[in-house]
Amino acid sequence: MSKNNMISKLREMQANNACLLATNFYNYETLRGILRAASNLNTPVILQLTKSSIDYMGLSVAVNLAKSSLEEYNVEGWLHLDHSITFELVQECLDMGFDSVMIDASEKPLEENIEITQKVVELAKQYGANVEAELGYIAKLGQSKEKTGFTDPEQARYFVQQTGINALAIAIGSAHGFYVTEPKLDLNLLAKIRTSTNIPLVLHGGSGIPGNSLKEAINLGICKINLATEIKNIFMQTLKSSMSHNEDIDLRNVFPSAIEAVTELVSEKLRIVNT
């Protein structure tokens, strides 16, 4: 685990026009693939868990797996709760030692978003934990990518002032899941949001965004980029391909190629983010 807390690390990133890659993991194998990449490149990484992954693995198991694996691979890293919609889950995760939490009330009216986010910020101060929130419409899995609701710079300024959050996830053209066409990030809007908020900004939906666009976004204030869908996809596609011509029932022989595919993917993303 890291000696620096995530609040100070993200501020360091902001000051240096730099960025951290935040990777979701779903089991031991995807976690191992991620940390191999970070260890090989000697670069820090954020490990993310959603409610679905926590429900699948169990909170205690997932947390201990992440912490022990960071130590095993000697990687500077942090554990982040991604897209919690409830205060209760945030509290559970902070009690379990998460370094960072995201409360996502972005689909609620602005004042409701502010109210619940304020509560999380006050709670997180007791733990010295980073708080991320979201403003604007970033299509989630299963939601329409045609709908738009980009983050308004003045609304973002007001939101940050009212809530006291440490990092803000913004809507500038990205979406969760796969893209039908190549996404176009509104970099002019990003520059305006950076000026109006002056806190670390987060880009969700990093899967499928071209490397040059990610680099431009980092130069304009994105300090954390989330990667999830591509990790799930490359793991499962590699596994399916391997099993289609292999009748080996020993998972210890079957999983390594999928783990290696995750390592290659995350290595590529880390090189982009750290350039």
What do these coordinates show?
By secondary structure, this protein is α/β, with parallel strands linked by helices. It has one domain (6-274): Alpha-Beta Barrel (TIM Barrel). It has helices at 6-15, 28-41, 51-57, 59-73, 87-95, 110-125, 153-163, 187-197, 211-219, 229-244, 251-274; strands at residues 20-24, 45-49, 77-84, 100-103, 130-135, 167-170, 201-203, 222-227. Helix 9 links the parallel strand 7 and strand 8 (222-227). Helix 3 crosses helix 4 (59-73) and helix 7 (153-163) runs parallel beside helix 8. It is globular and about 60 Å long. Residues 141-145 have low confidence and may be disordered.
Write down the Rg: 18 Å
Output the structural class.
alpha/beta
Average pLDDT reading? 92
Principal-axes shape call: globular
Please write out the topology:
Layout: H1 6-15, E1 20-24, H2 28-41, E2 45-49, H3 51-57, H4 59-73, E3 77-84, H5 87-95, E4 100-103, H6 110-125, E5 130-135, H7 153-163, E6 167-170, H8 187-197, E7 201-203, H9 211-219, E8 222-227, H10 229-244, H11 251-274
